Automatic annotation (TrEMBL):
Pfam families named among the record's database cross-references: HATPase_c (PF02518), sCache_3_2 (PF17203), SPOB_a (PF14689)
Entries under InterPro entries matching the protein: HATPase_C_sf, HATPase_dom, His_kinase_dom, sCache_3, Sensor-like_sf, Sig_transdc_His_kin_SpoOB, SPOB_a
PROSITE patterns: HIS_KIN
Protein name per its UniProtKB record: Sensor histidine kinase
Keyword Transmembrane helix attributed: yes
Length: 526
């Protein structure tokens, strides 16, 4: 059974239960109220008759029944009671609507409180006419109880009166049930339209899938509704916007988010203008893609923004631009290694074994000199591998590459490894490009590592063409490059972002023997 029908059945059962409970409660309340009201009415008539002087004087006459008959009969006709009984202190009737019962004892067994204690009561007892609600009052003379008056209404009359009210309650209940059924149909149909005909378990699964997808994508996602409230924000977006990752900003108005310049900029873009077109822009170092949200009625419901750090694009572009350089270096190394194998093969074919041995020793010594710089130093393995690779790359390009390591071990934690490798790799690539340009002083670069008061200094020098009239700030601008080829101008920007991420500093030094010197200092635990 579909959820809509289950909901309809549940609401109907609930309405019926409520109506039944209320009906039974009203019936009990009505019966009790009627019984109490009629009992009080009977008591009022009884007390009135008990104080009637004619009734009191009749008890002193020779024929009490005849003396009080006219007065009691008039009271009976006016009261509309089922019966009025007037009896002496022994319970013998002096008056009763039925003449045949005059002179007989009163029935019911509820006379003692009236005769013995002299107090008025309301009781419900089985009398000679049947079950009735009675009001009984003592007749007093000179402080003594000389008899009592009992006025009664039969329970059947009370029940018939209550039945009239119960029918009214029943009609009200039926009307309520009909309205409830109509409301149930309306609610279930509206719910079906709102949920696009999906079952609750399907909606729950879709929500969980949506949350997983939103958090799994590499982009930051922020959604605003038409009144400027945030309806969605994933963890990546909070990180890019420098917001508390533990806080849920759903439902937060933009007026409460003015500390985020990017969100402020996004709110200006999602104010309802130009909402019918997608757009891509760059805001505060973040690439923003804007996509409007529409409902089936072609009404604008809000906007979704996808955010990406510009450094992602910058790093990707830089890596693509370096791929060709690496490929060229590998081809050069392959070519050189092939030449060495040909030389060795030729010597062996000429049976110049000693010369072949000497050639191998010479190559081994050359390789040893390249790696001996690292043998006595404790260097992070990743950094070690990068420096050896860059040294080979420089050698293939005919560049003299000097590497000076610190006397202290260079140990990098997991947070520092990748940023440091990116910094060193970009600075060395820039240095090699500089010394290969026409007008360079010499094909020489150098990199040195030194420790200074809990910080690691990495200095890259080149003897190229220098910066000339340019400043270091120009190099840090995204897209600026001294190269004429495409896909350049991002390296120094990446370096700056990595340095900032490590809470370090970047300096351009000109008071050295090199043409260009770039120094990066990052805090590090020794």
């Amino acid at each position: 059974m579909k959820f809509q029908y289950k909901l309809m059945l549940l609401i109907i059962v609930l309405i019926l239960s409520i109506i039944s409970i209320l009906g039974i409660s009203f019936q009990k309340v009505i019966e009790d109220a009627l019984e109490q009201e009629i009992g009080q009415r009977a008591l009022d008539v009884a007390e009135t008759l008990a104080l009637n002087q004619t009734i009191i004087d009749a008890f002193q006459s020779n024929d009490p029944a005849a003396a009080m008959n006219q007065t009691a009969k008039a009271a009976f006709e006016v009261s509309e009671a089922e019966f009025i009984t007037i009896a002496n202190h022994e319970g013998i009737r002096y008056y009763h609507p039925k003449q045949s019962r005059i002179g007989l004892p009163s029935v019911g067994g509820d006379n003692d409180p009236v005769l013995l204690e002299g107090r008025s009561i309301i009781s419900k007892a089985e009398g000679s006419l049947g079950l009735s609600v009675r009001g009984k009052a003592p007749i007093m003379s000179e402080g003594n109880v000389i008899g009592f008056v009992s006025v009664g209404f039969l329970a059947e009359g009370i029940e018939s009166t209550a039945l009239v009210y119960e029918r009214i309650v029943l009609f009200i209940g039926l009307g309520t049930l009909i309205l409830g059924l109509l409301g149930t149909v309306f609610i279930t149909r509206s719910l079906k339209r709102a949920t696009l005909g999906m079952e609750p378990n399907e909606i729950g699964r879709l929500y969980q899938e949506k949350q997983a997808i939103v958090e799994s994508v590499g982009e930051g996602l922020v959604a605003f509704n038409q009144i400027g409230e945030i309806t969605l924000m994933n963890t990546r977006a909070k990180k890019l916007l420098n917001l508390d990752p533990e806080n849920d900003y759903t439902g937060t108005s933009m007026s409460d988010m003015d500390h985020s310049p990017v969100l402020t900029e996004l709110s200006l873009q999602s104010d309802g203008t130009n909402k019918n077109q997608e757009a891509i822009s760059m805001t505060k170092g973040i690439v923003v893609q804007k996509v409007p949200i529409w409902n089936k009625g072609k009404e604008w419901m809000g906007t979704v923004f996808s955010l990406r750090d510009t450094s992602d694009f910058i790093e990707l572009t830089e890596r693509l631009s370096q791929t060709q350089d690496y490929a060229d270096a590998l081809r050069a190394q392959t070519h050189e290694f092939s030449n060495k194998l040909y030389v060795l093969s030729g010597l062996l074919q000429l049976e110049s074994y000693q010369e072949a041995i000497d050639y191998i020793d010479e190559e081994s010594q050359a390789q040893f000199k390249k790696t001996s710089t690292f043998t006595d130093k404790q260097v992070d393995s990743w950094l070690h591998a990068l420096l050896i690779g860059k040294q080979h790359q420089a050698e293939e390009k005919g560049i003299d590459c000097d590497i000076l390591l610190s006397e202290q071990p260079i140990a990098l934690d997991n947070k520092q490894k990748r940023p440091v490798l990116t910094i060193v790799g970009n600075l060395l690539d820039n240095a090699m490009d500089a010394v290969l340009k026409p007008g360079a002083q010499q094909k020489k670069i150098a990199i040195s590592f030194t420790y200074t008061d809990k910080s690691l200094s990495m200095m890259v020098q080149d003897w190229g063409v220098g910066l000339g009239a340019l400043s270091i700030d120009s190099l840090l601008e995204t897209g600026y490059s001294t190269k004429t080829q495409k896909n350049h101008g991002y390296g120094m920007r990446i370096v700056q972002e990595m340095v900032d991420g490590l809470e370090g500093t970047l300096h351009h030094r000109s008071n050295t023997e090199a043409v260009t010197t770039i120094e990066v200092i990052i805090p590090i635990e020794q």
